[in-house]
Amino acid sequence: MYSALKLQGKKLYELAREGISVEREARTITLSQLILKAYNAPKLSLDVTCSKGTYIRSLAQDIGFALGTCATVTMLRRIGVGHFTIEQSKTLDELATLDDFGLFQQLIPVDHPLQKAA
To answer: pTM above the 0.85 mark?
Structure first.
């Protein structure tokens, strides 16, 4: 329910905030990797490589249900999408130290997302 998907022009998270719950259609997704990084009961840390349209909070709920309990997400960090990786990112503090030329050097060509992955 806490997604930006729309039902009759209204975002599901808006309905959820109003206390309204609606039936949602199941979606086909692909999990390429699901790695258990750490487990310190009752918390676990996962690395997930997934297809677009995957809602990690829903995945956490499903995992909890399969384990006979409940689950929630306490921290979510996207480390890559398409050609872009977390290693390419810069913090605001890092950008604040750059002059105009340095900032210009950080720009990614507008057609970069359209290129095929190597």
So the answer is: no
